[in-house]
Amino acid sequence: MNTVSSLLDDSWRERYRRISALNIRSSIYDVTNQCNLRCRGCFFYSSREHEAASEEMDLQKWHEFVGNEKARGVNLAILIGGEPTLHLDRVAAFYQTMPTYCATNGQIKVPRDRFPDMMVGISLWGDEEDEKVLRGKNTFAVSSKNYEGDPYTYYLYTITPKQLGRIGQVIRKIDDAGLKVHLQLLTNDEQVDGYSWTEEKMRDVRLEMDEMLECYPQTVISCKYYHEIITTGKMMGRSFGWSECPSVTELLDSRNPRPKRLIRFTRWASDLKTQHRCCTSATRDCGTCKDGAAHMSWVMVNKREHLKSAKDLQNWIEVYEMFAKLYRFIPW
Amino acid sequence: MSANPDKEALIVRIAEIIIFELKLEDITPESFNPDLDLVDELGVDSMDLATVVLVLQDEYGITIDEDDYPKLSSIRLIAEYIRQKQAS
After folding, report:
1. Residue B24 is part of which domain span?
2. Across chain B, how many H-helices and E-strands are there?
3. CA gap A73, A263 in Å, rounded
């Protein structure tokens, strides 16, 4: 029987110990149903989740809700929307209570005097051309000015099939802005023509993602095992999908057998009562879902599966470290 | 299985439950080191532990609170925990 000690040398064992102590318990919160963009492919709007519940308008109720979430054991709030920065008082309710990550399109600057070390993830869907097609404007021009050199901000770069061969140009611009970047892949929820993945494109993008990691090791927060998992949808011979996804709201999870999953994970709507099925949308075909966090979590909750060999366990550690870096539980 | 087995038998039985429930390979109840840290060394997580706890609760007629999971980090500690619960 393999044990951690039998598989790892001292330096890997130290890395393992560091992340094992973290015990991250995240949940996701829709801060608002509103957004200042309407992106083609945004699951929130394409699945009409913005109509699922009315927003809670009483700020005091947001504070009470966040307190209850902390008491429930949540120690990482992941804020999405809509656009969370449209309601900074609600964001503050989380930030004042627990480690908080705010996803944003970067068009509004989070005031750092109010949120000095809140993690900010700016969504980016490609280069100027792609952004105009999918999001109606070149968001990078604004977001890179708003957050240039910010040590608590990174780009969440959603790579589209049209980006093949041009990913490096985008990474270079991010690097020039003094920011970090994490890579994930577009799930073409709205079936925009030309933006769906094929097996061949997946193979190509994996190679390009690996190349970016080698060329920009200080800028790209990623690891090769994650690239393998997200591009193939396979882990230890198993396929990602509904029966495997770890990011399903706990109370709505009636799967039997129940797979390894995130403990206490819930995705809340902005009425603070309604729960969404999972971290993306209930209308998405899970077999084609390319959500980066879901794939990372898939690896993370399957630790024992990775005790088969030293390489497998090192891969697991690298994915966990990547996740912990993205939410600043450990330094970049 | 007696409701109050001697300590060594209890340790072997707990090992048997863990091996079966977690589908561990290349290990027998007798060769399972009772002091091995289940979390740090075997990668056992809270979901694994919850699975094992369900069986332990049924078998030994005790209730194990989730807050006590950190105390259950090795087979020997689980055995001691069960004996204390049964005695109280």
Report:
1. 7-87
2. 3, 0
3. 9
CB contact under 8 A, A260 and B42: no
Find out if CATH 3.20.20 is the number for domain A4-16+26-326: yes
Overall average pLDDT of the A2-30 stretch: 94
Distance from CA of A5 to the nearest CA of B (A): 7
Chain B CB contacts of A263 under 8 Å are: 46-47
In a domain, B2, yes or no: no
| Domain residue spans of chain A | 4-16+26-326
In a domain, B51, yes or no: yes
> Is B44 touching A (CB cutoff 8 A)?
yes
CA pair distance A289, A187, nearest whole angstrom: 6
Strand, helix or coil for residue A40 = coil
Domain containing B37 — which CATH number?
Answer: 1.10.1200.10
Q: ipTM strictly over 0.85?
A: no
Per-residue pLDDT band for A191 (boundaries 50, 70, 90) equals confident
Residues A253/A208, Cβ–Cβ less than 8 Å = no
Count of other CB atoms within 10 angstroms of residue A306: 24
Tens-digit pLDDT profile for residues A51-104: 889 999 999 999 999 999 999 999 999 999 899 999 999 999 999 999 999 999
* Domain total in chain B: 1
Residue type, position A113, single letter = D
> Model's pTM, two decimal places?
0.92
A vs B: CB pairs below 8 A? 34
Beta bridge partners, A275, equal A268
Residue A4: list chain B partners with CB under 8 A: 40-43
Contact: B36, A3; criterion CB under 8 Å: yes
